[in-house]
Specification:
There is one protein chain. The protein folds into 2 domains: 2-172, Rossmann fold, CATH 3.40.50; 175-361, Dehydroquinate synthase-like, alpha domain. It has helices at residues 25-32, 44-59, 78-91, 105-117, 131-137, 175-192, 194-202, 204-208, 212-232, 247-256, 263-280, 288-298, 310-324, 353-361, and strands at 2-6, 13-18, 37-43, 64-69, 97-103, 124-128, 142-147, 150-157, 162-166, 329-330, 333-335, 338-339, 349-350. The chain is α/β, with parallel strands linked by helices and 362 residues long. It is globular and about 60 Å long. The strands form 4 sheets. The protein has a 7-stranded mixed beta sheet with strand order 1-2-9-6-5-3-4, with helices on both faces. A two-stranded antiparallel sheet has the order 7-8. The protein has a two-stranded antiparallel sheet with strand order 10-13. α5 (131-137) runs parallel beside α6 and α11 runs antiparallel to α12. The protein binds nicotinamide-adenine-dinucleotide and zinc ion.
Length: 362
């Protein structure tokens, strides 16, 4: 069992990671998230798999209600937020209640947003069940829903009281989702920890075979990095931007593919492209893109551009840029294990448009 602390807010919070870590839930709730009534929120798939075992564990601590919504990113909406908050109101969840999110990143984001707004904010605990949620989305306090204009456009920062990542949940996670989560772990190694990056390479067979001790090690290391970055910059004022490595191109690919590519798959390609871009700009050490490509290919992740035209991708990036009121920015690597910082101490870089077009073409 591993424990990682996130130093955010008055007291911070702990992430418990392990094969069977769910057993810690009653104690974690009693100590860090006491409530008169618990609202467990899960999507339809995860509710069917783990709803009963989690409900039974929570019931040892206090009364609880179980709320589900249909699985899928397209349900991370204000409409589901409305349905859930109405149901909690009808069930009698009060200001002294608390939320438990049980599921992947969609459930964590939606359920966390419910917790952040219900009765002006009640506490919550995250029980991530996808690898992506364990290594990334369950940590850091970003909650929210999608709108017709794009992903995560309505939301709030709301830190959980605790996170329990039980890698036993991953036994039922479909293989493409395991690989997609691994892309974020590779990213964490690439931006902050060369040893993790190489360890993922060394363990790739055990990881893809779903060996719990390999998964536990990679999740724990990866969580440690996210926790450190978030602890330094909880509201994304500066250094947290390095978590966006690979994401400028990745998001554009995800959008252009109409979400046929999973987020982690788009990220894998995005990291290789952005490492190539960084080298072309004289920022990223030569050979970095190749190292990323080798590592990602060993994990069966895509690394080459799908059949899209650079113009489509550039249009999406320009649209995002407009939304941020500036230029297209990239978080870049210095080398494997280290994010690049500009001479004026910025963590993101503007790239000449013709260079971007060039790396998108090759
Ligand atoms: N808040 C953040 O900081 C942050 C960071 C990264 C991503 N995200 C968000 O996370 C979401 C993606 O997360 P995701 O990939 O976990 O998606 P998801 O929650 O939709 O889960 C993927 C699929 O796997 C299923 N599933 C989850 N756990 C399972 C298990 N143990 N066994 C079987 N099936 C299981 C789900 O039902 C779903 O169908 C996106 O909405 C993204 O915006 C948020
Ligand atoms: Zn991501």
């Amino acid at each position: 069992m591993h424990r990682v602390s996130v130093a955010v807010g008055a007291s911070g919070y702990d992430i418990t990671i392990g094969d069977g870590a769910l057993a810690a839930l009653p104690d974690v709730l009693a100590r860090h998230c006491p409530a008169v009534r618990y609202a467990i929120i899960a999507d339809s798939t995860v509710a069917g798999l783990y709803g009963e075992v989690v409900r039974a564990a929570v019931a040892t601590v206090g009364p609880c209600d179980f709320f589900t919504f249909p699985a899928g990113e397209w349900n991370k909406t204000r409409a589901q937020w409305e349905t859930l908050t109405d149901a909690m109101g009808a069930a009698g969840t009060g200001r002294d209640g608390a939320v438990i999110t049980l599921g992947g990143g969609v459930t964590g984001d939606l359920g966390g947003f419910v917790a952040s707004t219900y009765r002006r904010g009640i506490p919550y605990v995250q029980l991530p069940t996808s690898l992506l949620a364990m290594v990334d989305s369950a940590i850091g306090g970003k909650t929210g829903v999608d709108t017709p204009q794009g992903k995560n456009l309505v939301g709030a920062f709301h830190q959980p009281r605790a996170v329990i990542a039980d890698v036993a949940f991953l036994r039922t996670l479909p293989a493409p989702h395991v690989r997609a989560g691994l892309a974020e772990a590779v990213k964490h190694g690439a931006i902050a920890d060369a040893a993790l990056f190489h360890r993922i390479g060394a363990l790739h067979t055990a990881i893809l075979d779903g060996r719990p001790e390999a998964l536990e090690e990679i999740v724990a290391q990866s969580v440690g990095i996210k926790a450190r970055v978030v602890g330094r910059d909880p509201l994304e004022g500066g250094a947290r931007a390095i978590l966006n490595f690979g994401h400028t191109v990745g998001h554009a690919l995800e959008t252009v593919s109409g979400y046929a590519l999973l987020h982690g798959e788009a990220l894998a390609i995005g990291m290789v492209v952005e490492a190539t871009l960084g080298t072309a700009m004289g920022i990223t050490r030569e050979g970095t893109a190749a190292a990323l490509r080798d590592s990602l290919q060993a994990l069966d992740l895509p690394t080459t551009m799908p059949d899209t035209t650079p113009a489509d991708l550039l249009a999406v990036m320009a649209h995002d840029k407009k939304a941020r009121g500036g230029t297209v920015k990239f978080a870049l690597l210095k080398e494997i294990g280290q994010a690049a910082q500009s001479p004026d101490r910025e963590w993101t870089f503007s790239a000449p448009p013709e260079l971007v077009e060039n790396v998108l073409t090759h």
